[in-house]
Amino acid sequence: MTQGLSDPEISRVVNRYLGLSSGYLGSPDRFSCRTYADFYTDYCDLDVSLAGHEGMTREVFISVLASLSPRDQAKVLCGVIERFPQANLAHQPPGKQCTPTYFGSLNNSTRSSSSRASCLRLRARW
Fold first, then answer.
1. Closest Cα to residue 95, out of 1, 37, 7, 12?
2. 124 SS3 class
3. Each residue's pLDDT tens digit, 28-79
4. N vs C: which end of the chain shows fewer Cβ within 10 Å?
């Protein structure tokens, strides 16, 4: 059986790629309560219940991501890349960035056939 993301890998996704903006998850285009609740359906093709996950958006995201199967974790990573394109990395401090290689060699900021193929490769990893 394939192993999913480790706690340090989840932390890197949250702290180095998504970032925080005024206490909200996602920088600079942060999640609101509504956009976060819609994220899993709109960007990941997943039906995730946020009931039972307590805390701020950051803590809920970590809890949800850790609870998912490796295949669904890959869907969330693809959703993160689509929702927060590579262009947002320019807003992260130097040395605190995940590289495109970390996310399956994705380097397109829009959902193109190339990024879909890369997401399929990422999902196939698990």
1. 12
2. helix
3. 678 888 888 899 999 999 999 888 888 888 889 999 999 999 999 999 999 9
4. N
Residues found in the chain: 126
What is the phi-psi region of residue 84: left when phi exceeds 0, alpha when psi lies from -120 to 50, beta otherwise? beta
**109: which DSSP letter?**
S
Residue 114: CB atoms within 10 A of its CB come to 13
3-state SS class at 106: coil
Going by the DSSP 8-state scheme, the letter that residue 116 receives in this structure is H
The DSSP-derived string for 6-67 is -HHHHHHIIIIII-EETTEESSSSPPPHHHHHHHHHHHH------TT--SSHHHHHHHHHHH
Phi-psi region of 105 (alpha: psi -120 to 50; beta: other; left: phi over 0): left
* pTM given for the model: 0.69
Rounded CA separation 79/52 (Å):
22
